């Protein structure tokens, strides 16, 4: 189905939502009761209680219940005005298309995801479409961090006038009226010029203050009406590169020892996705990216499963959390400032092959099969080159090398080839303090330079050679090892 029906379309359901969201909730117990009514099936909002009782002080609780939560309720109730058709379009499989939302619309949808008023649309949706997994879990550390990110996002939105539907400021008319008024006053009060001059000065200062305030309001209005773009990129078979014959040159690659992907504001930032993208309760790279970029979470409402020749890209989403750690040790540090250069940032969601778990050599042999190498090359190429974008920086790392069983060295070369084929300007490869990997990769890059290995097709040939050698009793040698030992040259 190409559209998702919002709860405002069902009059009976919407009246029930309105009734509950127009009430005032002043403490954690009341909020838990509200959420449990929407959750149904005797589900408990356990993590909400844990979060408010263990993570927030009294001042922070008061701020949430006096400002943030009332804003969330009001924003959720704007749904019929923000979505007059009571539906949103979906990015269906096999079709290259994009959908844009204003930040105000996204905020409204996220409020409903928190209140758990949205329903899973089967069979298109395989998983959840609200924050129920966070709300009902047992207070896992990553989820606590994601709640910090979510509630800080709502607090930021509450200060940006997101509850106004239309805001029309006409400064020229205001200033013109004031100038006419000043002229009339000068004519009628010639004898009181000194007093009038003082008034004029006061009015000028007042006007300047009003102008500053109006500029601030205009900026806020622009923020709520900024567009966030969700795109499904599809590469048809005839559009896939010929990796064997590609004469495109290898681009510069920079190995970054520490830090998170995207810390250098690269335009394409790779998200190590599942084929059904979304958030969860643990601390995988994908779950962290969604938890610290909250606006991405509405992807679960609009994105069908990715096929082998597809990628999903999200442009201009806000970063809502700075964090440290990984897995169960993810920890929210702070909410970042809004980056004015964020408009060109794209989160690139691509899913790697999920390899079967055999002995190590069987995993490597499986991913070296020609069909699997081509799958990964074309998947990365699809994500790295949306709309024929060129001369852009790509930020990535050990894609598909965790639970999916990918080999770091093979995946690094595949992504290097794909980024070069896309004619990116540079690839920043985040190594997550893997010093052994960095040392070997640096040696390999020096060998490429010394041996004039500078074309995409040359790396394809090396991968095929490695496959042949690997099958012939080189199962204890990695790809980089054989390159360093000159056995592939």
Automatic annotation (TrEMBL):
EC number: 3.2.1.143
GO molecular function: poly(ADP-ribose) glycohydrolase activity
Record: residues binding substrate: 274, 285, 326
Keyword list, A-Z: Hydrolase
Entry's Gene Ontology BP terms: ATP generation from poly-ADP-D-ribose; carbohydrate metabolic process; nucleotide-sugar metabolic process; regulation of DNA repair
Enzyme class: hydrolase
One GO cellular component term noted in the UniProt record for this chain: cytoplasm
Biased composition (Basic and acidic residues): 173-200, 209-223
Entry keyword Hydrolase: yes
Every PARG helical domain range: 56-158
Pfam families for this protein: PARG_cat_C, PARG_cat_N
PARG catalytic Macro domain sequence ranges: 241-436
Claim: rRNA-binding is one of the keywords in the record: no
Transmembrane segments: none
Top-level taxon of the source organism: Eukaryota
Annotated region (Disordered), positions in chain: 173-223
Family: Belongs to the poly(ADP-ribose) glycohydrolase family.
Entry protein name: poly(ADP-ribose) glycohydrolase
Organism: Anaeramoeba flamelloides
């Amino acid at each position: 189905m190409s559209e998702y029906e919002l709860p405002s379309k069902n009059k009976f359901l919407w009246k029930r939502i309105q009734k509950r969201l127009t009430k005032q909730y002043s403490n954690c117990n009341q909020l838990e009761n509200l959420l449990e009514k929407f959750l149904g099936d005797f589900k408990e909002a356990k993590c909400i209680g844990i979060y408010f009782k263990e993570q927030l002080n009294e001042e922070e609780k008061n701020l949430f219940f006096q400002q943030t939560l009332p804003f969330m309720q009001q924003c959720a109730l704007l749904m019929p005005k923000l979505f007059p058709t009571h539906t949103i379009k979906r990015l269906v499989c096999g079709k290259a298309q994009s959908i844009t939302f204003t930040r105000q619309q996204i905020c409204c949808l996220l409020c409903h995801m928190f209140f758990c008023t949205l329903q899973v649309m089967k069979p298109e949706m395989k998983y959840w479409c609200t924050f129920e997994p966070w709300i009902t879990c047992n207070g896992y550390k990553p989820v606590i961090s994601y709640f910090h990110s979510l509630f800080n996002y709502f607090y930021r939105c509450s200060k940006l006038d997101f509850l106004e539907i239309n805001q029309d400021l006409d400064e020229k008319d205001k200033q013109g009226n004031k100038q006419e008024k000043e002229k009339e006053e000068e004519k009628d009060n010639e004898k009181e010029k000194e007093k009038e001059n003082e008034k004029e000065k006061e009015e000028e200062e007042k006007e300047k203050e009003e102008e500053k305030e109006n500029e601030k309001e205009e900026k806020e209005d622009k923020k709520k009406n900024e567009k966030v773009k969700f795109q499904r990129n599809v590469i048809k078979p005839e559009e896939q590169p010929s990796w064997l014959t590609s004469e495109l040159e290898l681009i510069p690659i920079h190995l970054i020892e520490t830090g998170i992907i995207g810390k250098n504001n690269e335009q394409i930032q790779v998200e190590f996705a599942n084929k059904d993208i979304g958030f969860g309760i643990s601390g995988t790279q994908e779950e962290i990216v969604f938890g610290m970029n909250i606006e991405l979470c509405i992807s679960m409402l609009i994105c069908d499963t990715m096929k082998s020749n597809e990628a999903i890209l999200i442009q201009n989403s806000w970063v809502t959390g700075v964090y440290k750690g990984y897995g169960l040790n993810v920890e929210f540090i702070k909410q970042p400032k809004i980056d004015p250069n964020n408009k060109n940032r794209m989160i690139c969601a691509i899913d790697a092959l999920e390899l079967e778990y055999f002995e190590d050599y069987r995993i490597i042999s499986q991913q070296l099969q020609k069909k699997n190498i081509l799958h990964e090359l074309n998947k990365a190429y699809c994500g790295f080159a949306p709309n024929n974008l060129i001369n852009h920086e790509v930020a990535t790392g050990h894609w598909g090398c965790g639970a999916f069983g990918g080999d770091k060295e093979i995946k690094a070369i595949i992504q290097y080839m794909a980024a070069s084929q896309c004619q990116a300007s540079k690839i920043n490869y985040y190594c997550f303090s893997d010093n052994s990997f960095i040392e070997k990769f640096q040696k390999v890059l020096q060998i490429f330079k010394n041996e004039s290995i500078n074309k995409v097709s040359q790396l394809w040939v090396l991968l095929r050679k490695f496959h042949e050698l690997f099958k012939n009793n080189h199962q204890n040698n990695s790809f980089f090892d054989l390159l360093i030992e000159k056995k592939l040259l």
